[in-house]
Design brief:
The protein is an all-beta fold and about 210 residues long. It is built from no helices and 19 strands. Strands 4-5-6-7 form a four-stranded antiparallel β-sheet, with no helix packed on it. Strands 8-9-10-11 form a four-stranded antiparallel β-sheet, with no helix packed on it.
């Protein structure tokens, strides 16, 4: 069991005994767990910092010039962190399991969800922007080390809330009014209407 709060990071054994403890300097920490690592990032305009841990120690830490808004980590230990820079609203930095930068994706849009496949080979980026007074969403999938997208889908009048990879390689995206399953080629395979719900909390499973 991993527990994080402002000031401390703790990992407990199944027996309840404390197996790892570390001080952190985060004010608004977020915790992500994979089969290999824990990734902790300080969300918002605070320390602009993330750290990566295993069961025994903090392995890596990095600070950006601008706030971290999102992150995701794959089971093989590679991960993506979303921030911005002087010229772009969103910048996605992609790292391998050895904490080496392997890709940078810059967007003139606001990235609202980022998702890495379990093996770390694919990256999905869901972003939103204004076009003629209405929302447009861009769903883009690319290889984690590639500058060329596998596919890009534009959805009009929708706001992406969350994206998740399915075990068969399809991508599930939860929008403000529906859920969509995209094939590995970017084709719509299924759409679930959510327009009658006043609020949405959802999690995509493996099937």
């Amino acid at each position: 069991l991993a527990v994080i709060n402002a000031g401390s990071t703790m990992l407990y054994k199944p027996s309840g005994a404390l197996s790892y403890s570390d001080n952190n300097k985060f004010y608004n920490p977020r915790l992500l767990i994979s089969e290999k690592y824990m990734l902790i990032y300080d969300r918002g305009d605070t320390t602009h910092t993330y750290s990566v841990h295993n069961s025994f120690a903090k392995l890596h830490e990095e600070r950006y010039d601008y706030p971290i808004t999102l992150a995701d980590i794959s089971d093989n230990g590679s991960y993506a962190v979303v921030t911005r820079d002087d010229s772009f609203r969103s910048v996605v930095y992609v790292y391998n399991e050895n904490f080496k930068l392997k890709n940078t994706v810059k967007k003139d849009k606001y990235v609202l969800s980022v998702s890495m496949s379990d093996n770390g080979s694919k990256l999905a980026i869901a972003s939103v922007y204004d076009k003629d007074g209405d929302f447009e969403s861009e769903i883009q999938v690319l290889g984690a080390s590639s500058e060329t997208p596998d596919f890009t889908v534009i959805e009009n009048g929708k706001i992406p809330l969350q994206s998740e990879w399915l075990k068969n390689g399809d991508l599930a995206v939860i929008f403000s009014d529906c859920a969509v399953i995209y094939s590995q080629k970017g084709e719509r395979k299924n759409t679930i209407d959510l327009s009658g719900l006043s609020s949405i909390t959802a999690k995509a499973g493996d099937n």
